[in-house]
Amino acid sequence: xxxxxxxGNKWRKLKEYIGLxxxxxxxxxxSFGGAxxxxxxxxxxxxxxxxxxxxxxxRGNELSINSNSYLKQMSEWGMDLHFLDxxxxxxxxxxxxxxxxxxxVIPEGGFSKVGVLGLEGLKNELNEQIQADYIIxxxxxxxxxxxxxxxxxxxxxxxxxxxxxxxxxxxxxxxxLDNFLEIKTNYIFGKYAKESQVLNEFCDTFNKKHxxxxxxxxxxxxxxxxxxxxxNNYFPKNSKLIALHTGGIKLPH
Length: 253
Ligand SMILES: *Cc1c(COP(=O)(O)O)cnc(C)c1O
Fold this sequence. Notes:
Order of helices and strands: HEHEHEHEHHEHEHEHHE
Bound molecules: pyridoxal-5'-phosphate
Strand content: 15-25%
Distance between the termini: 16 Å
Largest sheet: 4 strands, parallel
Protein backbone atom coordinates (compact mmCIF):
# COMPACT_ATOMS: atom_id res chain seq x y z
CA UNK A 1 0.00 0.00 0.00
CA UNK A 2 2.97 2.33 -0.33
CA UNK A 3 1.68 3.48 -3.71
CA UNK A 4 -1.34 2.66 -5.92
CA UNK A 5 0.73 1.98 -9.05
CA UNK A 6 4.22 0.97 -7.99
CA UNK A 7 2.54 -0.90 -5.23
CA GLY A 8 5.29 -2.73 -3.40
CA ASN A 9 8.86 -3.84 -3.66
CA LYS A 10 9.40 -2.44 -7.15
CA TRP A 11 9.74 1.09 -5.80
CA ARG A 12 12.23 -0.02 -3.18
CA LYS A 13 14.34 -1.74 -5.83
CA LEU A 14 14.26 1.33 -8.10
CA LYS A 15 14.75 4.19 -5.70
CA GLU A 16 18.54 4.02 -5.43
CA TYR A 17 18.79 3.97 -9.22
CA ILE A 18 16.64 7.09 -9.45
CA GLY A 19 18.98 8.80 -7.00
CA LEU A 20 21.98 7.77 -9.12
CA UNK A 21 20.36 8.99 -12.33
CA UNK A 22 19.67 12.36 -10.72
CA UNK A 23 23.18 12.74 -9.26
CA UNK A 24 24.86 11.70 -12.52
CA UNK A 25 22.48 13.60 -14.80
CA UNK A 26 22.00 10.34 -16.72
CA UNK A 27 20.41 10.45 -20.15
CA UNK A 28 18.15 7.50 -19.47
CA UNK A 29 17.54 4.34 -17.50
CA UNK A 30 17.36 1.12 -19.52
CA SER A 31 15.98 -2.17 -18.28
CA PHE A 32 14.61 -5.53 -19.42
CA GLY A 33 11.44 -7.53 -18.92
CA GLY A 34 8.61 -9.65 -20.26
CA ALA A 35 5.34 -8.30 -21.66
CA UNK A 36 3.76 -8.19 -18.18
CA UNK A 37 6.81 -7.10 -16.19
CA UNK A 38 5.88 -5.36 -12.91
CA UNK A 39 9.44 -4.07 -12.83
CA UNK A 40 9.23 -2.24 -16.17
CA UNK A 41 5.73 -1.03 -15.39
CA UNK A 42 7.03 0.56 -12.18
CA UNK A 43 10.12 1.94 -13.93
CA UNK A 44 8.04 3.62 -16.64
CA UNK A 45 5.82 5.29 -14.06
CA UNK A 46 8.72 6.40 -11.87
CA UNK A 47 10.59 7.76 -14.90
CA UNK A 48 7.52 9.75 -15.81
CA UNK A 49 7.20 11.18 -12.28
CA UNK A 50 10.88 12.08 -11.91
CA UNK A 51 11.29 13.28 -15.47
CA UNK A 52 13.89 10.66 -16.31
CA UNK A 53 13.84 9.06 -19.74
CA UNK A 54 13.25 5.31 -19.57
CA UNK A 55 13.83 2.58 -22.14
CA UNK A 56 12.21 -0.84 -21.83
CA UNK A 57 13.61 -3.82 -23.71
CA UNK A 58 10.82 -6.38 -24.02
CA ARG A 59 11.12 -10.12 -24.66
CA GLY A 60 9.31 -11.06 -27.90
CA ASN A 61 9.62 -9.32 -31.25
CA GLU A 62 6.10 -10.45 -32.15
CA LEU A 63 4.79 -7.90 -29.63
CA SER A 64 3.97 -4.22 -29.98
CA ILE A 65 2.82 -1.43 -27.67
CA ASN A 66 -0.74 -2.52 -28.44
CA SER A 67 -0.24 -6.15 -27.34
CA ASN A 68 -1.60 -5.49 -23.87
CA SER A 69 -2.87 -2.60 -21.77
CA TYR A 70 0.27 -2.51 -19.61
CA LEU A 71 2.63 -2.04 -22.56
CA LYS A 72 0.30 0.64 -23.87
CA GLN A 73 0.26 2.38 -20.51
CA MET A 74 4.05 2.19 -20.21
CA SER A 75 4.39 3.77 -23.61
CA GLU A 76 1.98 6.52 -22.60
CA TRP A 77 4.08 7.22 -19.52
CA GLY A 78 6.90 7.90 -21.94
CA MET A 79 8.87 4.67 -21.85
CA ASP A 80 10.59 3.92 -25.13
CA LEU A 81 9.79 0.26 -25.88
CA HIS A 82 11.99 -2.04 -27.96
CA PHE A 83 10.90 -5.60 -28.78
CA LEU A 84 13.62 -8.20 -29.03
CA ASP A 85 13.57 -11.74 -30.41
CA UNK A 86 14.00 -14.31 -27.66
CA UNK A 87 17.60 -15.20 -28.52
CA UNK A 88 18.82 -11.59 -28.43
CA UNK A 89 16.78 -11.03 -25.29
CA UNK A 90 18.40 -13.98 -23.58
CA UNK A 91 21.80 -12.43 -24.32
CA UNK A 92 20.49 -9.05 -23.07
CA UNK A 93 21.61 -7.32 -26.23
CA UNK A 94 20.89 -3.60 -26.26
CA UNK A 95 19.72 -2.73 -29.81
CA UNK A 96 22.20 -0.58 -31.73
CA UNK A 97 19.77 2.27 -32.26
CA UNK A 98 19.67 2.92 -28.51
CA UNK A 99 22.02 5.63 -27.30
CA UNK A 100 24.09 4.13 -24.47
CA UNK A 101 26.23 7.08 -23.45
CA UNK A 102 25.70 8.12 -19.81
CA UNK A 103 22.83 5.72 -19.27
CA UNK A 104 22.04 3.47 -16.34
CA VAL A 105 21.30 -0.17 -17.15
CA ILE A 106 19.25 -2.02 -14.55
CA PRO A 107 19.44 -5.81 -14.86
CA GLU A 108 16.25 -7.75 -15.59
CA GLY A 109 14.02 -7.73 -12.50
CA GLY A 110 16.26 -5.22 -10.72
CA PHE A 111 18.71 -7.57 -9.05
CA SER A 112 21.99 -5.85 -8.15
CA LYS A 113 23.80 -4.43 -5.15
CA VAL A 114 22.13 -1.08 -5.86
CA GLY A 115 18.69 -2.70 -5.94
CA VAL A 116 19.31 -4.51 -2.65
CA LEU A 117 20.30 -1.21 -0.96
CA GLY A 118 16.78 0.09 -1.53
CA LEU A 119 15.43 -2.41 0.99
CA GLU A 120 17.23 -0.76 3.90
CA GLY A 121 14.37 1.66 4.61
CA LEU A 122 12.02 -1.25 5.25
CA LYS A 123 14.00 -2.07 8.38
CA ASN A 124 12.92 1.08 10.22
CA GLU A 125 9.37 0.95 8.87
CA LEU A 126 8.96 -2.54 10.31
CA ASN A 127 10.90 -2.04 13.53
CA GLU A 128 8.57 0.83 14.44
CA GLN A 129 5.61 -1.55 14.23
CA ILE A 130 6.61 -5.05 15.24
CA GLN A 131 9.50 -7.17 16.43
CA ALA A 132 9.05 -10.43 14.57
CA ASP A 133 10.80 -13.79 14.59
CA TYR A 134 10.28 -14.50 10.90
CA ILE A 135 9.52 -12.57 7.76
CA ILE A 136 8.09 -14.27 4.69
CA UNK A 137 8.31 -12.89 1.19
CA UNK A 138 7.87 -13.99 -2.42
CA UNK A 139 11.07 -14.50 -4.41
CA UNK A 140 11.60 -13.64 -8.07
CA UNK A 141 15.19 -12.42 -8.49
CA UNK A 142 15.72 -12.60 -4.73
CA UNK A 143 16.55 -8.89 -4.42
CA UNK A 144 13.81 -8.28 -1.86
CA UNK A 145 14.52 -11.40 0.21
CA UNK A 146 18.27 -10.74 0.18
CA UNK A 147 17.75 -7.10 1.21
CA UNK A 148 15.46 -8.12 4.04
CA UNK A 149 17.78 -10.73 5.48
CA UNK A 150 20.75 -8.42 5.08
CA UNK A 151 19.19 -5.42 6.81
CA UNK A 152 16.62 -6.89 9.21
CA UNK A 153 18.79 -9.75 10.35
CA UNK A 154 15.85 -11.96 11.20
CA UNK A 155 15.00 -15.36 9.78
CA UNK A 156 13.70 -14.73 6.27
CA UNK A 157 11.64 -17.34 4.43
CA UNK A 158 11.69 -16.78 0.67
CA UNK A 159 8.90 -18.49 -1.26
CA UNK A 160 10.37 -19.18 -4.68
CA UNK A 161 7.97 -18.38 -7.55
CA UNK A 162 10.02 -19.66 -10.49
CA UNK A 163 12.59 -22.32 -11.32
CA UNK A 164 15.69 -20.27 -10.66
CA UNK A 165 17.16 -21.62 -7.43
CA UNK A 166 20.68 -21.73 -8.91
CA UNK A 167 20.42 -18.05 -9.84
CA UNK A 168 19.16 -17.14 -6.36
CA UNK A 169 21.98 -19.07 -4.67
CA UNK A 170 24.42 -17.30 -6.96
CA UNK A 171 22.91 -13.90 -6.10
CA UNK A 172 23.07 -14.68 -2.37
CA UNK A 173 26.82 -15.33 -2.57
CA UNK A 174 27.43 -11.64 -3.25
CA UNK A 175 26.15 -10.80 0.23
CA UNK A 176 27.01 -11.83 3.74
CA LEU A 177 23.63 -13.18 4.84
CA ASP A 178 24.68 -15.29 7.85
CA ASN A 179 22.13 -18.00 6.99
CA PHE A 180 19.22 -15.66 7.71
CA LEU A 181 17.66 -16.50 4.35
CA GLU A 182 15.97 -19.81 3.64
CA ILE A 183 14.43 -20.45 0.23
CA LYS A 184 11.38 -22.72 -0.08
CA THR A 185 11.00 -24.40 -3.44
CA ASN A 186 7.71 -26.28 -2.91
CA TYR A 187 5.35 -23.55 -4.06
CA ILE A 188 6.42 -22.83 -7.62
CA PHE A 189 3.33 -24.57 -9.07
CA GLY A 190 5.26 -25.82 -12.09
CA LYS A 191 6.75 -22.66 -13.47
CA TYR A 192 6.61 -18.88 -13.36
CA ALA A 193 3.05 -17.51 -13.45
CA LYS A 194 1.63 -20.91 -14.40
CA GLU A 195 -2.09 -20.96 -13.64
CA SER A 196 -3.46 -23.35 -11.06
CA GLN A 197 -7.06 -23.79 -10.01
CA VAL A 198 -6.00 -24.54 -6.45
CA LEU A 199 -4.02 -21.33 -6.31
CA ASN A 200 -6.76 -19.22 -7.91
CA GLU A 201 -9.29 -20.55 -5.41
CA PHE A 202 -6.89 -19.90 -2.56
CA CYS A 203 -6.47 -16.27 -3.70
CA ASP A 204 -10.25 -15.77 -4.11
CA THR A 205 -10.96 -17.12 -0.63
CA PHE A 206 -8.17 -15.04 0.86
CA ASN A 207 -9.38 -11.87 -0.86
CA LYS A 208 -12.95 -12.39 0.34
CA LYS A 209 -11.97 -13.31 3.87
CA HIS A 210 -9.38 -10.63 4.54
CA UNK A 211 -10.31 -7.90 2.04
CA UNK A 212 -6.63 -7.84 1.07
CA UNK A 213 -5.94 -8.32 -2.62
CA UNK A 214 -3.36 -10.91 -3.55
CA UNK A 215 -2.52 -12.20 -7.03
CA UNK A 216 -1.46 -15.74 -7.93
CA UNK A 217 1.98 -15.00 -9.41
CA UNK A 218 3.78 -13.72 -6.31
CA UNK A 219 1.76 -12.86 -3.21
CA UNK A 220 -0.68 -15.76 -3.76
CA UNK A 221 2.16 -18.28 -3.93
CA UNK A 222 3.73 -16.64 -0.87
CA UNK A 223 0.58 -16.82 1.29
CA UNK A 224 -0.19 -20.31 0.04
CA UNK A 225 3.29 -21.41 1.06
CA UNK A 226 3.03 -19.64 4.41
CA UNK A 227 -0.27 -21.38 5.25
CA UNK A 228 1.24 -24.71 4.26
CA UNK A 229 4.30 -24.16 6.47
CA UNK A 230 2.07 -23.17 9.40
CA UNK A 231 -0.08 -26.28 8.89
CA ASN A 232 3.05 -28.41 8.90
CA ASN A 233 4.28 -26.89 12.18
CA TYR A 234 7.29 -25.31 10.56
CA PHE A 235 7.21 -22.38 12.98
CA PRO A 236 7.66 -22.90 16.74
CA LYS A 237 4.57 -22.09 18.81
CA ASN A 238 4.00 -18.38 19.52
CA SER A 239 6.39 -17.26 16.78
CA LYS A 240 5.64 -13.79 15.45
CA LEU A 241 5.52 -13.75 11.67
CA ILE A 242 5.52 -10.95 9.15
CA ALA A 243 4.10 -11.78 5.72
CA LEU A 244 5.42 -9.10 3.40
CA HIS A 245 2.89 -8.10 0.73
CA THR A 246 5.18 -7.17 -2.14
CA GLY A 247 2.49 -5.59 -4.32
CA GLY A 248 1.90 -6.84 -7.83
CA ILE A 249 -1.67 -5.60 -8.09
CA LYS A 250 -1.53 -3.74 -11.40
CA LEU A 251 -4.81 -1.95 -11.88
CA PRO A 252 -4.68 -0.25 -15.28
CA HIS A 253 -4.48 3.47 -14.57
C1 LIG B 1 8.76 -8.54 -8.70
C2 LIG B 1 7.95 -9.06 -7.59
C3 LIG B 1 8.46 -9.93 -6.63
C4 LIG B 1 9.86 -10.49 -6.72
O1 LIG B 1 10.78 -9.66 -6.11
P1 LIG B 1 12.33 -9.98 -6.21
O2 LIG B 1 12.95 -8.86 -5.45
O3 LIG B 1 12.70 -9.93 -7.67
O4 LIG B 1 12.59 -11.31 -5.65
C5 LIG B 1 7.65 -10.33 -5.59
N1 LIG B 1 6.38 -9.89 -5.50
C6 LIG B 1 5.84 -9.06 -6.40
C7 LIG B 1 4.43 -8.66 -6.24
C8 LIG B 1 6.59 -8.62 -7.47
O5 LIG B 1 6.04 -7.81 -8.39
